[in-house]
What does this fold into?
Amino acid sequence: MFDALSSKLEAVFKKLRGRGVLKEEDVKEALREVRLALLEADVNFKVVREFVGRVQARAVGQDILSSLTPGQQVIKIVNEELAGLLGGVQAKLHLAPNPPTIIMMMGLQGSGKTTTAGKLAKYFRKDGRRVLLVPADTRRPAAAQQLATLARQVGVDIFSSEEKDPVSICRAAAAQAIQSLHEVVILDTAGRLQIDEPLMDELRQIKAAVKPQETLFVADAMTGQEAVNIAEAFDRGIGFDGVVLTKLDGDARGGAALSIKAVTGRPIKFAGIGEKLDALEPFHPDRMASRILGMGDVLSLIEKAQAAVSPDEALSLARKMQRNAFSLEDFRDQIRQVKKLGSLDQIMGMIPGLNKMKLGDAKPDDGQLARVEAIINSMTPKERTDAMIINGSRRLRIARGSGTQVQDVNRLLKQFAEMRKMMKSMSGGKMGKFAKMFGGMR
Ligand SMILES: Nc1nc2c(ncn2[C@@H]2O[C@H](COP(=O)(O)OP(=O)(O)OP(=O)(O)O)[C@@H](O)[C@H]2O)c(=O)[nH]1
Ligand SMILES: [Mg+2]
It folds into this structure.
């Protein structure tokens, strides 16, 4: 989502990097451009003013490291201040010392409360905790049904009762959770198009009745500055402990993400990055800052990759890439792993350099992955290790075997050849570093 901001900031820093000595005017000029870029990204103007002020004070002041060039210094300061703006350190959820931990979701209609409740349920479930989802949205008839479907998908329990009043439902659910030994109780409350007093009052009553350990305000990043104003109103009216910023996968300009902590004083705890149930990430301010500055979120990627790929697999893959011994067999393994990791675009966006590269035909989209896998499955092991032997009659056989057309097979082989070429050309540079990082994960 930060693409526009990212490329502007990168352009500013590119100019700085090229210089050996920086004059005060150079820094001032760069910061003017940073300021503009932030304003264009819809960041709150007061937040921008303070931010630029802090960077400027440090850049022209004492905060200097001799190991860096002046340009690098400024980038480092901007990076640190940006991380600070986003909350500094990662803010974790408060868990109750004695279960159950009660988490209350709130926010406007369509912000993603119910989806996030499902994602959080999955998050805790993976951790081996017993989760109870509570439908406290009685206004929309389909709401309870939506939550029940999510509960089934995730494999957690849902609270059901004859009650019609959201406050009574939450109170009863909290009491039952103790009996039924649920460790995490997630309350999915109703939303409104606008902030209104009856809604605020209902949420206040729920909060007072069950005293949640964690009240999470769910903000739709696509609504920009408006999300920040609404957050302020919810904080004044009810009070919350943290923010879940949803739809960060969209093309919002980033203003909400960059202003919400500074304006409300409440940290962003999670980011929603897709509609699927595993598209939820703990929010890391420092990594997000690096991502915005175009350094790519290598750490998040490695964490994801670590969860999906064993260190041995990663190391052997990295070595193969460097030796240019990457085969169709490896390609298929990669496709399987990509499926485990999430969508291809999501992953590409996190690799420095790759997010800017035009991969063209070399980059299959998610829908193609399954077909590509079927084609590779139809090859003999020998063909998979040596794509050169795949001649016309073999192509025909493979197409028939995988239920595809010869053109599809041709396209795949061409993509594969391009991919290998790309890996070879990158193995000295960014990809090589990346590969080494994987290699160093043991
Ligand atoms: N792309 C994307 N879509 C999301 C994300 N989170 C939620 N959505 C989508 O946003 C829409 C609304 O989500 P809900 O979870 O139903 O929102 P809600 O806040 O519970 O809405 P109400 O119950 O009507 O107040 C759904 O289509 C979700 O799939 C996200 O992180 N990324
Ligand atoms: Mg809902």
About this structure: Residues 3-85 form a domain with the Four Helix Bundle (Hemerythrin (Met), subunit A) fold (CATH 1.20.120.140).
